[in-house]
Write a structure and sequence with these properties.
Number of strands: 5
Number of domains: 1
InterPro entries: PepSY
Number of helices: 4
Strand content: 25-35%
CATH topology: Nuclear Transport Factor 2, Chain: A
Organism: Photobacterium lutimaris
Shape: elongated
Largest sheet: 5 strands, mixed
Keywords: Signal
Strand order of the largest sheet: 1-2-3-4-5
Helix content: 25-40%
Distance between the termini: 48 Å
Pfam families: PepSY
CATH architecture: Roll
Protein name: PepSY domain-containing protein
Radius of gyration: 14 Å
CATH class: Alpha Beta
Length: about 120
């Protein structure tokens, strides 16, 4: 597989449709070969899985996504805009899709509480 094909493959794994993410800025700080390998090995969940998790846990719209690796741990860093136009930053473990950190204004408006 050539370099361009690998890059396209990675993006297709991370992004499920261009229409749903038309206003989302995606930034991958790592080498695309490393990202592809991490996805294939289950170290990184596809973006579609992350988006489902975010929709279940949080109110707001994703406006920016970064995928980074540090000490062999992959992290999704998101920026969301809540219904009151506050920006909230959320870090997810890319393998387990567990929230590692959440900060910003109006967190009471963005976090969904189970009824």
């Amino acid at each position: 597989m050539n370099r361009k094909s690998k890059y396209i493959y990675i993006l297709s794994l991370l992004l499920f449709t261009s229409t749903a993410l038309a206003n989302v800025e995606l930034e991958i700080d790592e080498d695309h070969d490393d990202v592809m390998r991490a996805v294939q090995q289950g170290q990184v969940q596809p973006f579609s899985s992350l988006q489902s998790k975010v929709n279940a846990q949080l109110r707001g719209r994703i406006i920016h996504v970064e995928l980074e690796e540090d000490d062999n741990i992959w992290i999704y860093e998101l920026k969301l805009i809540d219904p009151n136009n506050n920006i909230v930053r959320v870090k997810y473990d890319a393998q387990t899709l567990t929230i590692l950190e959440i900060k910003g204004r109006g967190l009471e408006n963005i976090i969904k509480v189970d009824q």
